[in-house]
Amino acid sequence: MLAARPLPQTLGELRTSTRFPEACLKSRTIKDEMRGNLIARLQSHETLFPGIIGYEDSVIPQIVNAVLSKQNFILLGLRGQAKSRILRALTALLDDRLPYVAGCEIRDNPYLPLCRRCRDLIGEQGDATPIAYLTREERYVEKLATPDVTVADLIGDIDPIKAARGAKDLSSELTMHYGLLPRANRGIFAINELPDLAAKIQVALFNIMQEGDVQIKGYPVRLELDLVLVFSANPEDYTARGKIVTPLKDRIGSEIRTHYPESLEEGMTITSQEAWEKRGQTPIEIPGYIREIVEQVAFSAREDKKVDKRSGVSQRLPISTLELVVSNAERRALVNGEPVVYPRVSDIYAALPGMTGKLELEYEGEMKGTDTVVRELIRTSVGKIFDRIFAGSDTKQVEQWFNLGGSVHLDDDHPAAAALADLKQIQGLFERLKPLDIGKSDEAPKVVSAAEFFLEGMVAHRKLSRTEERVFTAQEPTSRRSERADLEVEYDDWKSSRRTPRSGYN
Question: Which of 80, 196, 315, 419 is the Cys-Cys partner for 145 at CB 3.0 to 4.6 Å?
């Protein structure tokens, strides 16, 4: 195998190089470069954005159209919809190496230098001018928009120290300190949460992206930068914190809307890809119904009236929840010396901290409390997955055992062997677990997890009761349950009245 030819190190070597033709570097912009590489990928049927799931027929074709049209674009969507990840993945459409004048702050094209320093250097050294190279990752610059961002941060400012050290007049280009935008020259510049930028900063931004000039403290600077500008924004921010000024919005070529996974299978694939599941020492087996319940919690939350739909329910919710579910099961296995980590439904309830902080509630939800709302979402999700797996299953024999005074305690710290011994007392329970294909009945962690799921499904459908201490018992009679519900309503009304501020004095 032949060794790769060394890259040109001077301007003279670059001129004679066949890898970087002078005519191509002079005429080819970054948008031309991305378009050409995208066309090559489409023709070879390569995956354009590895790891991005669920956007194959919606978002990705729109991004492809924007790149083929050589447009700047914005991704508009709620939190947790992979907007930043997509923007960072655009570097795959760049060349693996790009030559520039070594030491240049704005990565000047050796054949078309913009800054005074590079023009003077090439004038002095000619073909001996040193050349360096940018990687794909170095050509991506990202900025999180905040209200305190200034024109100096993005564009640049006059640097008096440079002027003093070089004995230069303040009007000289050599005294300019370049901001993020010039430093991203010949690359991709991404701004996250665009509406958070102050209006005057947005004006400076669209001026330099369209006309190529800007005034810094009264000194006109013309920088014909070669850039792809991409943005992300949350629709909530248009009214909550700020908005995109009309002239800037008009100059953004495409507005592409992202979305959450459209099916449970897509969501599970994303969660499995992103969650940290492989821990090392102890083998981990996550049953499919646990994955489905965790994902269903996010889907149920997006439909629940008590959850604020304008804020959305991030895909990070099922990801962090699954990690906590595995961790709680891992803790139980380590404490009890079990050979395998096998999560249960009780581990999902133990993962409440991974869910409560990711939900913005409406007034009704706030009155109930976040913990209560999340517990209801888990119970609803368990019921939906139970119905799908155990459709048509007869639970009367199990109900009868509890109605005759039976009860079982299944704490999330309970060793699998001890829990299995208690579960074996329930008549007809194991026969109902056949749809889960649990295999050998002596695999305690697997059997206990499946049995607990079945009992939790019965609780979700109000065929059994379960205390906060996780003791499963017979369901209360309808009359007593109705009476208790009325008392709970009265108690909630009393709490509501206590929270309502009173006017005047008693």
Answer: 196
Hey, what are 395's tokens?
Answer: 């639970």
Q: Is the pLDDT of residue 43 over 90?
A: yes
Query: Among the residues of 304-389, which ranges form H helices?
Result: 316-336, 345-350, 353-356, 363-368, 370-389
Chain center to CA of 177 = 34
Residues 6 or more apart from 309 whose CB is under 8 A from it? 302
Separation of alpha carbons 453 and 289, rounded Å: 8
**Closest-CA residue to 204 (of 240, 238, 159, 157):** 157
Using CB atoms within 10 A of its CB, is residue 312 exposed (0-12), middle (13-18) or buried (19+)? buried
SS3 sequence, 380-432?
A: HHHHHHHHHHCCCCCCHHHHHHHHCCCCEECCCCCCHHHHHHHHCCCCCCHHH
Identify the H or E element spanning 177: strand 176-178
Pairing mode, strands 187-192 and 227-233: parallel
Question: Containing H/E element for 452?
Answer: helix 444-460
pLDDT digits (tens, 9 = 90+) for 126-168: 999 999 999 999 999 999 988 888 888 888 777 766 666 666 6
Q: What is the rounded distance in angstroms from the CA atom of residue 247 to the CA atom of residue 7?
A: 43
Strand-pair category, 131-134 with 98-101: antiparallel
Q: Which residues of 85-114 are buried (b: 16+ CB within 10 A; e: fewer)?
A: ebbbbbbbbbbeebbbbbebebbbbbbebb
Q: From CA 192, how far away is CA 231, in angstroms rounded? A: 6
Residue type at position 73? F
Tell me how far apart the alpha carbons of residues 187 and 34 are, in angstroms, rounded to a whole number. 10
Q: Which of 134, 186, 128 is nearest to 9 (CA)?
A: 128
> What pLDDT is recorded for position 24?
86
Rounded Cα distance, 205 and 155, in Å? 8
Average pLDDT over residues 46-55: 92
Per DSSP (E only), the strands in 226-297 are 227-233, 254-257
Chain segment 408-426, per-residue pLDDT in tens:
999 888 899 999 999 999 9
All domains of the chain in start order, with CATH: 11-257 (3.40.50.300), 264-489 (no CATH)
Closest to 10 measured CA to CA, from 129, 133, 138, 163: 129
Query: How far, in whole angstroms, is CA 242 from its chain's centroid?
Result: 22
